[in-house]
C-alpha cells in the first residue's frame, strides 16, 4: 500500500516540525513538503500533488480559510484544519468545515502523546477517503438528497440523543440541516475541545431551523431546541426537573475516555425517557456511546447507527452495532429521514413506522 502523502502548511517552523515528527513516525504516512504560508503552498500542491493537507488558520499573506476555498475549487482533496484552541480560531475552523474541510483538530503537543495519535489516525482516514473516491474533497456525499418529511402539526413527548466524534462535525451539519423547526428536544455530544463547541453551536444555529445552543446546567428542555454538550470539562446528562426534563452538567472522571461522554448522555436519556427516546450514533473513533446505545435499546428506545460506507471513521457505530445497541444501520444521507420515520414527529392521522 502506498503511504499517504501529506503537505504541512503552518507559519510556525516549530509547529511544522512537531506535526512532521508526529506523522513521519508512521510507516503509512509520508510528509512530502512543508509550507510557511498559502502562497508557497499553492505551488507545492501543484508540484507535489499531496493526498492530504494539514492547514493552520491564521497565517501571513492569506488566511487558511481563503486558501481552503481556493484549493477546494481548483485542486480538491482532504484538508485537515490544525488550529490553536482560541475562540477566534474555533469560529474560523467551524467555517472551514462548512466550506469542505475534512476535519478539525487542535495543534499537537510534544507533551501529549494522545494528540499525536489523534492526528495520525485522522490523516490515515483522510488518505483512505481520497483513495476510495468517497468524494474529491473528502466529504461524505449525499447531503442534498431530500430526507425529512414536512414539519408535523404535533410534536410527541420524546427526545433525540446523538453522539459523534471524528467526522461528526460535518455529519451533524448534514443531519441537523434537515431537522424541522418544531423537532423534539435534541441533545448532542460531539467530541470537540472546549473552545470549539460554542462556535459550533452558533454555526449550527445559523443554518438550522431549530434553535441550537450550547447546553447550560439546569436548562429546561424545550421542543424546537438542540443542545450541544460543552466540550472539555463536564458531562451532559438529561434529568427530570419538576414536571419536565432539563440538562445537567456535572464534573466527573472521563467515561470511555471522554468528558463529555456519549455513554453518559445516552445512559441518562434511557433512564429519563425510556421508550420515548431515539438514540443515534454517528462516525467516530473508539467505542464511546456503545454501552449507552445498548441501554437505550434495552429501555425500548429506537436506535440508529451510521453505516460503514458513509462513516469517516467506522468505530463508534461499529462497536454499538456489534454489541446490539443499534437496531438499524443506515447511510448518513438517510439518518434524518430514519429519525422522523419512527414516530418522533407524529402527524395528525398518521401511523408511525416501526419497520
Short synopsis of the structure:
The chain has 355 residues and is an alpha/beta fold.
Key descriptive features of the protein:
single chain; 355 residues; alpha/beta; 7-stranded parallel sheet; 5-stranded parallel sheet; 11 helices; 35% helix; 21% strand; disordered C terminus
Write the layout of secondary structure elements.
Blueprint: E1 4-9, H1 13-24, E2 29-35, H2 38-48, E3 52-55, H3 64-74, E4 79-83, H4 87-98, E5 103-106, H5 113-132, E6 154-155, E7 159-164, H6 168-176, E8 186-190, H7 194-207, E9 211-214, E10 225-228, E11 235-241, E12 244-250, H8 262-273, E13 277-281, H9 290-298, E14 302-306, H10 316-322, E15 328-330, H11 332-339, E16 345-346
Parallel strand pairs: 1-2, 1-3, 3-4, 4-5, 7-8, 7-13, 8-10, 9-10, 13-14, 14-15
Antiparallel strand pairs: 6-16, 11-12
Account of the protein in words:
The chain has 355 residues and is an alpha/beta fold. It has eleven helices and 16 strands. Helix 3 (64-74) runs parallel beside helix 4 (87-98). The radius of gyration is 20 Å and the shape is elongated. The N and C termini lie far apart (41 Å).
Indicate the overall shape: elongated
Helical run tally:
11
* Unreliably modeled segments: 134-156, 345-355
Strand order of the largest sheet: 9-10-8-7-13-14-15
Amino acid at each position: 500500500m502506498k503511504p499517504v502523502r501529506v503537505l504541512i502548511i503552518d507559519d510556525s517552523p516549530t509547529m511544522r516540525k512537531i506535526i512532521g515528527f508526529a506523522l513521519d513516525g508512521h510507516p503509512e504516512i509520508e510528509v512530502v513538503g512543508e509550507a510557511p504560508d498559502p502562497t508557497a503552498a499553492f505551488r507545492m500542491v501543484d508540484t507535489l500533488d499531496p493526498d492530504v493537507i494539514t492547514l493552520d488558520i491564521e497565517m501571513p499573506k492569506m488566511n487558511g480559510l481563503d486558501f481552503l476555498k481556493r484549493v477546494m475549487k481548483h485542486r480538491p482533496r482532504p484538508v485537515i484544519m490544525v488550529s490553536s484552541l482560541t475562540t477566534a480560531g474555533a469560529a474560523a475552523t467551524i467555517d472551514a468545515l462548512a466550506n469542505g474541510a475534512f476535519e478539525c483538530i487542535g495543534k499537537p503537543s510534544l507533551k501529549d502523546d494522545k494528540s499525536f495519535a489523534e492526528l495520525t489516525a485522522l490523516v490515515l482516514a483522510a488518505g483512505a477517503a481520497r483513495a476510495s473516491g468517497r468524494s474529491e474533497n473528502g466529504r461524505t456525499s449525499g447531503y442534498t438528497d431530500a430526507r425529512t418529511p414536512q414539519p408535523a402539526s404535533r410534536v410527541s413527548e420524546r427526545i433525540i440523543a446523538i453522539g459523534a466524534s471524528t467526522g461528526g462535525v460535518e455529519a451533524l451539519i448534514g443531519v441537523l440541516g434537515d431537522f424541522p423547526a418544531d423537532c423534539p428536544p435534541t441533545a448532542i455530544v460531539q467530541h470537540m475541545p472546549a473552545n470549539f463547541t460554542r462556535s459550533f453551536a452558533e454555526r449550527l444555529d445559523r443554518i438550522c431551523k431549530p434553535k441550537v445552543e450550547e447546553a447550560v446546567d439546569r436548562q429546561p428542555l424545550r421542543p424546537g431546541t438542540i443542545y450541544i454538550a460543552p466540550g472539555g470539562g463536564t458531562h451532559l446528562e438529561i434529568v427530570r426537573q419538576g414536571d419536565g426534563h432539563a440538562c445537567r452538567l456535572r464534573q466527573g472522571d472521563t467515561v470511555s475516555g471522554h468528558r463529555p461522554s456519549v455513554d453518559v448522555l445516552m445512559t441518562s436519556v434511557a433512564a429519563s425517557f425510556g421508550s420515548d427516546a431515539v438514540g443515534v450514533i454517528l462516525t467516530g473513533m473508539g467505542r464511546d456511546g456503545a454501552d449507552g446505545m445498548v441501554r437505550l435499546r434495552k429501555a425500548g428506545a429506537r436506535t440508529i447507527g451510521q453505516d460503514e460506507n458513509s462513516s469517516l471513521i467506522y468505530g463508534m457505530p461499529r462497536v454499538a452495532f456489534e454489541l446490539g445497541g443499534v437496531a438499524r444501520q443506515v447511510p448518513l444521507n438517510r439518518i434524518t429521514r430514519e429519525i422522523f420515520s419512527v414516530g418522533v414527529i407524529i402527524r395528525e392521522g398518521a401511523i408511525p413506522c416501526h419497520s
